Amino acid sequence: MYETDHPAYKKLGQIGKEITTKVKPRAVVVFSAHWQAGRDSIQVNTAENTDLIYDFYGFPSHYYKEKYPNVGSREIANKVLRLLGEAGIKAEGVKRGLDHGVWASFKCAFEPESNPLNVPIVQVSLFNNEDPIAHYKLGQAVSSLRDENILIIVSGMAVHNLRDLWSTMGDPRPLPYTTSFDEALKQAVTTTPAERKQALADLLKRPDARKAHPTFDHLLPIHIGAGAAGDDVGKRLWTLGEGSMSWAQFRFGELANSSSSL
């Protein structure tokens, strides 16, 4: 967010520009790794005016003064709740702010001055479990939103190991598991839609999975995005392995009708 010369910042900006100029969604529904509800239930943010949640600790004071202009939509939130109910998924509406899994990446993709999003943002939680199939089905439940030009964005990371981050600080070379898991994720996402659900689920069984993701909260959003994609093919737009992290970005479908992973 502050390293504007970082390749990930620039790539997010390019993707954001494609979204605002080519996709032109009427709203965005976003799933973030930083909001988990019940083990078998989902929460949907119904607030129309939302503050930011500074859900991180030990950073310089200016991090906690960040702003990101946004509005919610009760109409879209209720639509999500209806779709989840029709799919047999327990869900409730709540009022909360946007966590940094949304606003930090959105500040890069949709910089308020140069590339404002200017459409409602409705955040939806993950389950508080590590079941990849349940999260894939969660994406399937809301897939029809895309037919109404509502963009589905999922926010996580391809590789996310904070435990090893500090030991690799200053050395940009990716760790072995960063490279191997990043490539495995690409293969799973870009496989045929008929095989994608199982291929993604199998990632969690890999011997390098718990190295790449000590907890799977940052991996599960891509399962939601893939589930929402239906028969659309996944494509990796870009990747960068850096220490114990990977910044890979994915898109499902063509620009006119897509879901994205930031």
TrEMBL record:
<keyword id="KW-0479">Metal-binding</keyword>
<dbReference type="Pfam" id="PF02900">
    <property type="entry name" value="LigB"/>
</dbReference>
<keyword id="KW-0560">Oxidoreductase</keyword>
<dbReference type="GO" id="GO:0008198">
    <property type="term" value="F:ferrous iron binding"/>
</dbReference>
<dbReference type="InterPro" id="IPR004183">
    <property type="entry name" value="Xdiol_dOase_suB"/>
</dbReference>
<dbReference type="GO" id="GO:0008270">
    <property type="term" value="F:zinc ion binding"/>
</dbReference>
<feature type="domain" description="Extradiol ring-cleavage dioxygenase class III enzyme subunit B">
    <location>
        <begin position="5"/>
        <end position="235"/>
    </location>
</feature>
<dbReference type="GO" id="GO:0016702">
    <property type="term" value="F:oxidoreductase activity, acting on single donors with incorporation of molecular oxygen, incorporation of two atoms of oxygen"/>
</dbReference>
<keyword id="KW-0223">Dioxygenase</keyword>
<protein>
    <submittedName>
        <fullName>Aromatic ring-opening dioxygenase LigB subunit</fullName>
    </submittedName>
</protein>
<comment type="similarity">
    <text>Belongs to the DODA-type extradiol aromatic ring-opening dioxygenase family.</text>
</comment>
<keyword id="KW-0862">Zinc</keyword>
<dbReference type="InterPro" id="IPR014436">
    <property type="entry name" value="Extradiol_dOase_DODA"/>
</dbReference>
